[in-house]
Amino acid sequence: MRADVVVIGSGPAGLSAARAAAAAGVQVVVVEEAPWAGGRLACRVDTLDSPPALAGRRADQAARELVAAAGAAGATIETGTLAWGLFPGAPGTVAVRRDGRVEAVEAGAVVVATGSLPAPYPFTGWTLPGVMTAPAVERLINRHGFLPGRQAVVVGDTSEAGRVARLLELCGAAVEQVQDIESAGGQGRVEEVTVGGQTRPADLVVLAVGRLPQVELLNAAGCPIGADGVPQHDPSTGRTPLVGVFVAGSAGGAGNLAMSIGSGAIAGISAAEHVGALTRAEAAARRWDLIRQLPPPARLSAPERPLPVDEFALVCRCEEIPRTEVEDAIRAGARTVDDVKRMTRCGMGFCQGKNCTRTVMNLLALRGAATRGQAGSGAAAPGGPLRPDRPGAVELRPMRLRPPVRPVRLGELAAAGRDVSLLERAIHPEGEEPHP
Prior knowledge:
Elements: E1 2-8, H1 12-23, E2 28-31, H2 59-73, E3 76-78, E4 82-87, E5 92-98, E6 101-112, E7 116-118, E8 131-133, H3 134-144, E9 151-155, H4 159-170, E10 174-178, E11 183-185, E12 192-195, E13 198-201, E14 204-207, E15 211-213, H5 216-221, E16 245-247, H6 257-274, H7 280-293, E17 314-316, E18 321-322, H8 323-331, H9 337-344, H10 357-372, H11 410-415
Parallel strand pairs: 1-2, 1-6, 2-3, 6-16, 8-14, 9-10, 9-14
Antiparallel strand pairs: 4-5, 5-6, 7-15, 11-12, 12-13, 17-18
Helix pairs in contact: 1-2, 1-6, 3-4, 6-7, 8-9, 8-10
């Protein structure tokens, strides 16, 4: 398969990018892992208050309108299609998996609009059944008609927390919204929680403390990722340092719907320019018209208390690695997330670090602050990694990834006519580079 522009993700940003690129006359294919298009917006039923073009619409209705607009412009949307690798170049290649088969999609330009993930918020008992993220609760209720609990504690003071709390109340659940939680306990599932030193009954804990960009495809492709999780890019064009690769929406740090839709259109215009459908002047004029209409920038935010209170709470839930084991690795000389990964297996599980990388980085930042002897000096500046300023200092950057970033069966690769080889990669003891 080949397309002028491939958009990864069919949320508001991806659909907006597809519409803008298709309107310039290029062939656009949108690949979406979920069986439906529209992203998280399609799983919500609240009434939107922005952007103006969608104000007053129910969220899922707005999602359907965005899908229809992208299709009317000429974009093709492929749902149930998982992107597991991004290989920049001229042309670039997006490796996808669908219907049990893998294939390569060649693209003149790629827009990464993969959205964001709930920020991890580890505490004792956070792996118990009954502890869920806000998007998971919204999907269960709004798409499947299932209420996951009747005594709910919603953790967070974000707009997402308020929205899911109201949804649960409308469904008849008793809801308490709190800013922090100490622990959850129970036999086989959540039966009680401890908040502010007080233990009370609960059968559902909803985490809505913040979000982080979902950028594993960009990470594995070699795009620099800042300590805040945001990929390096030019917000005025969506362009990343990778040839022909653009980023849009919350994958690029956009913190609200209006910014996501606007940044998507900007990236779509830039992608069309990259493949020659628009001149530089035409693209600049179209982007400027959009930029003038955007609200003040709003960024994604992670929780202020990103560390588990209990030293034995699990940091890596996949490999069951507690905070104490991560701290032992740091005391033993780990200076990067990758060091911790090799020493503890933290990040080697199914999620490939999505649920633990942020917490490990914050534990490393604490060590960096202690090294400098100044509280808080280990915190990285937004948008860039903390580089060692002397031997032994920590370096705050996400885990290094390699494709496939999601599970792919060897049999599927072989069936696609690819050579499948098992390679041994040796890591030099003095650094990250492999032995020659």
